[in-house]
Each structure stands twice: as structure tokens, then as C-alpha cells.
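Take a look at this chain, C-alpha cells included, and explain the fold to me:
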Amino acid sequence: MDMAKQELGNQADQLVSAFSRIDEKVSQMRSSVESDPETLMDKALKFALPSIAGLVAGKLFQAFWGSLVRKRNGGMDTEESDQESATAGLLFAVLSAAVTTLASGLIERGSQALIDRRHK
């Protein structure tokens, strides 16, 4: 009987120890969340604005490129004129990526500055 009480006591100690570790982990997580001044809206803003800006910049560049191709082909919009050479296609891809990255990078910095200013 004494052995059973001792075993039950050991199990209780182990259970209390496990709950203590869980409590410490929850306290660490709570502290981490409380020390982060950004709200969910701030995080969404930092994600959404650069994404939208990159999308808009890419679409504007695509429209600009299309108008250049139409001008080069004398205003004709046929299937033959739509098919570009591999070099022109590569140039479009590189320039489009550069414009999109530049726009989203600038807007990302701007949104971070806006959030930092709001926190002050």
C-alpha cells in the first residue's frame, strides 16, 4: 500500500511538473505577443499594400509593353504581331519583374514607415 501511495505521489509530481512547463511556455508566448507592437491590421497592411502595388505595376507595365508592340507593328493587332521573338519575350519578363519588384519594395518601405509613425 505504501508503494502504491509513493507511485501515485510520483505521478502527481510529474503531472504538476508538466503543467508547470506548459504554464511557462504559455507565459513566454504571451510575453512575445505583448512585446510585438504590431496589430493584425498592421500585419495585413504590410502584406496587402506591397502585393497590390506589385500587381498594379505589373499590369501597367504589361499595358505599356503592349502599346509599344502595337506601335512597332504599325498599329496592327494581329496574331503574327502578337508573337514576339524570344529575345523580346525575355526582355519583357526581366523588365516586368524589375518594375514589379521595385514598386512592391517601395510600397513595403512606405507601409513600414507609416506603421512606425503610427506607433510613435
Observations:
- The radius of gyration is 30 Å.
- Helices lie at 2-35, 40-72, 79-82, 86-119.
